[in-house]
Amino acid sequence: MSSRAVVFFFFALLSFSGICLRSASADNEEEDPGLVMNFYKDTCPQAEDVIREQVRLLYKRHKNTAFSWLRNIFHDCAVQSCDASLLLDSTRRSLSEKETDRSFGLRNFRYLDTIKEAVERECPGVVSCADILVLSARDGIVSLGGPHISLKTGRRDGRKSRAEILEEYLPDHNESMSVVLDRFAAIGIDTPGLVALLGAHSVGRTHCVKLVHRLYPEVDPVLNTDHVEHMLHKCPDAIPDPKAVQYVRNDRGTPMKLDNNYYRNILDNKGLLIVDHQLATDKRTKPYVKKMAKSQDYFFKEFARAITILSENNPLTGTKGEIRKQCSVANKHH
């Protein structure tokens, strides 16, 4: 074969390889579209309606479920991947994320199973627990009077708990504002987004275990004195029983409503947690707190943006992960 023929053959081979690579790449893109709007439109078109209806029915019977759905999206999606690892029960080999200190107070997981069962009746083995977790949060926000947020779907479920690394991702309520800002920045949520996400503290309640250090042995002097009286009434013990129903509502004015009243409260030194106080006083966050205290529209806009970013944090898509049969247990692989 002449040298000219060899060169021609070599370039032809390269060209053919390039076509094959592009073809394989295109096939992979077809197999894994990533997160998209209405991912289940062909495989389970009624999925989102079923989830929405279940969230509505559960909220009607158990108002606190909506708080749980809102907490779930933060506790799951902020920890490395939005893959429903939070929902996995403990096994002989691994501790559940649900049983860690950072997850104290999380509950109503059995009702998430109720939603999963309803979806499975319609479309067995199609809709992931990760998508159910995210969509239940979206619909729970609406139940609480918050904005409707259009969220993409197509997540798949992880197979392992991340309990051992959870504290690297979820900031504690006593962390410095610098740590809190850094943790959120790592997943793409900026300062106004963080301030808006913490507006979720406008609903639900805080167990006395998490706030007695601000009351005993001495009352934190920065607390609003009028509010201290109420806090002491609700938390009369310096060492409360973690299993006792002892708590303070996060917002006494509109405790069941997601609104910007939270920001007015923390500017008035009525925040229950250290992070609430820091949010209202730190020079990096205070301007946004004041802006959200004045404008609920601005709060909702930033809240929707932050929830969207959180919901899209490093999901498993395509052929990664699995579709769990039960949200609390990884599928058995033979």
Model description:
With 334 residues, the protein is an all-alpha fold. It folds into 2 domains: 46-167, Peroxidase, domain 1, CATH 1.10.520; 171-309, Peroxidase, domain 2 (Orthogonal Bundle). The protein is built from 13 helices and 2 strands. It has helices at residues 3-31, 47-61, 65-77, 109-122, 129-143, 166-169, 177-185, 191-197, 225-234, 261-267, 274-281, 286-294, 296-311, and strands spanning 205-207, 247-249. The chain has a two-stranded antiparallel ribbon. Helix 12 packs across helix 13. The relative contact order is 0.16. One of its GO terms (cellular component) is extracellular region. Disulfide bonds join 44-123, 77-82, 129-327, 208-235. Residues 1-26 form the signal peptide. InterPro entries: Haem_peroxidase (IPR002016), Haem_peroxidase_sf (IPR010255), Peroxidase_pln (IPR000823), Secretory_peroxidase (IPR033905).
